[in-house]
Amino acid sequence: xxxxxxxxxxxxxxxxxxxxxxxxxxxxxxxxxxxxxxxxxxxxxxxxxxxxxxxxxxxxxxxxxxxxxxxxxxxxxxxxxxxxxxxxxxxxxxxxxxxxxxxxxxxxxxxxxxxxxxxxxxxxxxxxxxxxxxxxxxxxxxxxxxxxxxxxxxxxxxxxxxxxxxxxxxxxxxxxxxxxxx
Length: 182
Fold this sequence. Notes:
With 182 residues, this protein is mainly α. The protein has helices at residues 3-40, 46-55, 64-90, 97-125, 129-151, 161-181. It contains six helices and no strands. Helix 1 packs antiparallel against helix 2 (46-55), helix 3 runs antiparallel to helix 6 (161-181) and helix 5 (129-151) packs antiparallel against helix 6.
């Protein structure tokens, strides 16, 4: 076996031993952050937090500040996707007028939410965490208001329950991490 082959094999062996250590170090921050947040709020879902943050690109290689930025961006992405989904629903023929009216209200709220979260990302970069709290909380309130709008009329089922729940949960993750910065 040549020297280069032996060197290559030894390099692979070394990297295979180091990589799990690096991964466990980085996932520990996510675990610790989600555990800390779940201890402070009985309605906080540890598994949703962990799954959401681990799925985000770059989340395993950041410190707490970066994890907070990722969390706020995840919330903004959720709001953007929900906005698109609502537009698709509104484009369907034969939509119940009561559902249509509520979807339009939700579209307006999520549109403002995307703008607010874009501002929240700028504020987060500038270290204005109190302002981030205000903006994220407003988006969470709007997602609840959107869902509640469908409950006002008996028999009306919200087509946005999952999106609204996800917005509330992602908002809780964002607030938790942002509050760790204060």
